[in-house]
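To whoever picks this up:

The nightly regression suite flagged Sec translocon accessory complex subunit YajC as changed. Nothing in the input moved, so I suspect the structure step. Input below, exactly as stored in the fixture:
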Amino acid sequence: MLLLAVLLGVDAKTKPDGSQKKGLDNRQALDAPVAKIMVCPFVGATSVSLKAVPMSDVMSFLPFVGVFAIMYFLLIRPQQQRQKQLRNELKSLRRGDRIVTAGGVIGVVQKSREDTNEVEVEIAPNVRVMVLRDTITTVLTSTAKPANDIEKAKK
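Regenerated output under the current build:
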C-alpha cells in the first residue's frame, strides 16, 4: 500500500483532508487511509475516488473488444467451421475415399465401420494399415455422388 501511495504521489503521513499526521512511525503510516485509491480492472488505470468508472475508461476498453471481434470472425469462426466439415466427412467415410493422415500418409479407404474408430487404409498395392479416424486430417476425394448429379441416358 505504501508503494502504491508513493507511486501516486500521496504522502503516507497525510490525512485525506490534507492535514499532516504527527508522531506516526512506519507501521502506523502503512495503515494510513489509502482506501480511497481504486484500481480500475478494465484498463489498469488508477482513480482516487470510489465513484463509478468514468465513461472515458470504458471507451478506452472498446478497442480491445473490437480486436477480439475481428479475431473471432477472421480466425476462430472459420476454424470451427472447418472442424465441423471434417467431422461430417469423417462420419461419412466410404470405401474408395482418398485420405491424408496426420503423418502425411496418403491412402485409399478399404474398410470403414461407423461403430469403430478404426479405418483400414491401403497406402500401396496390397499394403493395408489400420488408422484411427482422429488421425485423418483431410478427405481428398469422395466416391459419393452429389445429389444433383444426373446420369446421362445411353443413346
